[in-house]
Amino acid sequence: DCYDKENKLDSIIDWPEVFKQHAHTVSKTNPFRNQLSASNPFVYDVAQLSNSDKNNKHISILKEDPYLFSRDSSNRDSFASSGDELDIDHLLRKASAGKSGRSKSVSELLDIVDARRFDPDNTASSGQILAADMEWLQNDREAYKMAWLSHRQLARSCLDLDAMSHSPGWAQTQPTDTHVVCKLNHEGGSVQLPDSDIAVHIPEGHVSPGEFQEVGLRAILNPPPSLNHDLSCTVSPLIELTLSNLNTMEAILLEIKIAAEVKKDPFSQVMTEIMGFYSLNKEGPFEKLHNCYIYKDTIQVKLTDLSRVMYTVVAVQVNPIQSLATSVWEYIHRNISIGIYGPKHIHPSFTAVFTVFGHNYIPEKLTVCDIKKGGKSMPPVVFNLWGKHTFLLDKPQDLSVSLISCDPDFEVKMEDQSKEIKEGQLKAGEVVHQQFPFSVLGTGEMHLFTFLVHIKVPNNNLVTQFPITTPDPAPKLTGMTSKPNRLQKRKEIKSAPFLLTPTVKYPKFQDKTLNIISYGVALKTVFRQNKIEYLLEYFKGDTIAFLGEDKVKAIGQTKVKEWYVGVLRRKIGLVHCKNVKVILKEQAIDIADSVLPTRNLLEQIALPFKKLTYIYSLVLSTVSERVYNWKALADVLGYSHMSLDDFSEVPADKESERVAYVVKKLKEDCHANRPRRQFLYELIVALLKLDCQGLVARLTQDTVLLTSAVKLGKCWRELAERLARLTKQQIEAYEVPHQDRSGEVALEMMWKPAYDFLYTWGAHYGDSYRDVLQDLQSALDKMKNPLTKQWRELTGALILVNCMEILRANAFSKKEED
């Protein structure tokens, strides 16, 4: 089983938020308004837009971009907490009428948390989800900065699309670092990096029968400087290869497509050699590999001296003794690859990034770290690949690059139309990018367009040119942001007729008393001075109903113990196995305190979702793809009044789009009625009523892993050592994509490598979600300072998955299913 990971996992990930603000309100509530552009390059543009658009309605809607993870997609975004969980009001209290599209943050990550309760009197109007007053932070710039960054990067679950459609792409792109992890048995196999010509081949018999080899493959875009000089140049990215098992019996093969070919003349053939280089460190030193085989533009390298982390790169070198040439380029045909990157959707003002690669690997996403606005450096932003092109370059020389719009509605400013790529940059082999800001002329309708890329040498001769077509503009969700006129409505209805029959018929949930098979009698009285969530308290002689035969391993007050999941006095929780004597139903005398209806069971086992952190776009996409009857979902959510007419204003050609509409409706209603209503909790209850247990299990695992990563912070390193025995180098490899310019991972960003690791680790279990949760619980319990002593939602999740079987057996009629 192979699992691709975009890390962003996020992926990590930078998760900024876009929202519209009235300038006069912001100037009052934000004492550092004039300097905010240092951390958000688009806040000025959005504010200016607001001044010219004061009559526009500020209706907050939910972000709809389920492009996440390799199994579903490539981006991670819309970080939120359930219900909405861990209120942002802990950071940003009170309401202010000038902000819209706010979501909740995981506020306890910050030391500046103001632990105050939500005040329902301060709830904003229906045109807002949440707004905030920052007067309490006016005298503490660092506190304000931390609060704002946390809110921007960790808490974006809702966006004002109208504001977003006028911004240059902020919040559409998150940092990613693509790599793949695969677990193979003794039969071997091949692992290929997604969207590349890079693969590793594991032969049969590489490991003994019964053992496994976990192979990780990652491409580092910038090659080692030591292999790029006059007589040497790299022609592949730096490949990081990780192995989990060194008890091997066969070598492995690494296959890479290279970006150069030695010229056919005899002198070049003799003087030049393409070879692989190997090192245990990313920076080197690199040793030559002798077991290399080249066929056309592909090299195959045999790796015999294996290590847990290895770095390999392909380079072309000239014999320094016999060669009369001044550059290795004289003996080779050198390919230069160009990637054109930009935001996911174009806007009235956006940036296209021209990127030069010294190898054939052009990633689908590119992190740009040197964005500047007003002379100030901006945080890194990730752009999507719009198009690519490869051409031959005879020698390293200065290149002049121009981007020219073929559409009169768009232009690049005259001073930005031409940029230079220096000869030294090409020799160094590093990734070089230049930014070209586009803007729309006039107030015409936004649309995709084509522009030409021209590349010239110093004598003004054209080396190559190629066209690039932009993506579509940012979509506006009609019916949520603006009302279409009657003619538009009629056209939409004609072009997208609705199917009148549902795809799937779901079983009907029945509220009835549970049929308990097994009971236990308490052998001692247990009452705790400090109450512990999800642990039952009982008197000696109490009869406790067991909701399953499986045991749960979890930490109690001080030690890890085995527990049964039971119910007593209508409360579900864990009871220590040694404190009860198991009896049959016929032996139970007084079971009045153990009676529980299915509705009460369902509502209690879903309680952890009130406090679990989730990614809204992932929840939206997963539910819309795996629920096949929008009407059934609407009914269990309390929207039985909804009909096909409600979709007339929303593009909903497919059943999944109608399901997504229902989920968005729930999200909006929960935001409007917080804290009484909580989105993820209500959604899980509804899915359980539809008997969508596989979907609930998927969401449970995703949210538990994400919440664990957020809670762990820098302690994830200890967990990684316990769960997977990661080496220091492997741990550093997870953190590298999220390091700042100082080479460190900021404390508030430490959850990103933690989630990368947990997601990869959890993927190896396949569908065994119970094992994932139980193994994670056991590992967290054994840490030096167990997180699970205070954070008990993982224990609650274990109770949920252990109760699914009895819920299905009692709440749904088998006759109806048949």
UniProtKB/TrEMBL annotation:
Residues 178-315 form the ZU5 domain. Its main location: cytoplasm. The keyword Endoplasmic reticulum does not apply. It comes from the Eukaryota. InterPro entries: DEATH_SH3BP4, SH3BP4_C, UPA_SH3BP4, ZU5_dom. Gene3D superfamilies: 2.60.220.30. Keywords: Activator, Cytoplasm, Nucleus, Phosphoprotein, Transcription, Transcription regulation. Pfam families: DEATH_SH3BP4, SH3BP4_C, UPA_SH3BP4. It is found in: Cytoplasm; Nucleus. GO terms for cellular component: cytoplasm; nucleus. Interacts with FASLG. This is Metastasis-associated in colon cancer protein 1. It comes from Chelydra serpentina (Snapping turtle).
